[in-house]
Write a structure and sequence with these properties.
By secondary structure, this protein is of the alpha/beta class. The chain is built from five helices and five strands. Helix content is about 30%, strand content about 20%. The longest helix is centred in the first third of the chain and has 11 residues.
Length: about 140
């Protein structure tokens, strides 16, 4: 069995995420998604997610391409995850090219092209930004609703 592992936040799940997960799964028989915890996102990645870790995990587990979802708590856990889950392939988006080449000692490293026209950052920007859990979105008043 060929095991593939990938990492990410996967907030505001969209078709770009699905494309990446589908293509990652096509590289093997079993896809492990290592999902950044809320604490790791806030402290290390300096980002606040709209959905909590448990909500994002539930969404990922519902995707047919994903076989297992585990927690990402720190940058340094990648080598131990690869060893523990016996991953043959490490996959990331091509915006990370070269950053994880040190993992080639443990498995194949592949950088997949992203779906160019969509990103979580762009969605948040299009919505006016600031749509974290602690900020209320604007109230739309309409008698047509």
């Amino acid at each position: 069995m060929r095991r593939v592992i990938t990492y990410g936040t996967f907030d505001l799940l969209h078709y770009g995420h699905i494309n990446l997960l589908r293509r990652a799964r096509e590289l093997g028989d079993y896809l492990i998604v290592v999902l950044s915890t809320d604490e790791f996102n806030e402290i290390e990645k300096n980002k606040i997610t709209y959905f909590t870790y448990d909500e994002r995990k539930q969404l990922l587990e519902a995707i047919r391409h994903v076989d297992l979802v585990i927690e990402e708590k720190c940058w340094e856990q990648k080598i131990s995850d690869i060893k523990l889950y016996q991953a043959d392939v490490f996959v990331m988006g091509d915006d990370w090219v070269g950053k994880f080449d040190y993992l080639k000692e443990y498995c194949e490293v592949i950088y997949l092209t992203r779906t160019e026209e969509i990103s979580t950052t762009q969605i948040k920007s299009d919505l006016g930004g600031g749509y974290g859990r602690d900020i209320n979105p604007p109230v739309i008043k309409s008698d047509k609703l």
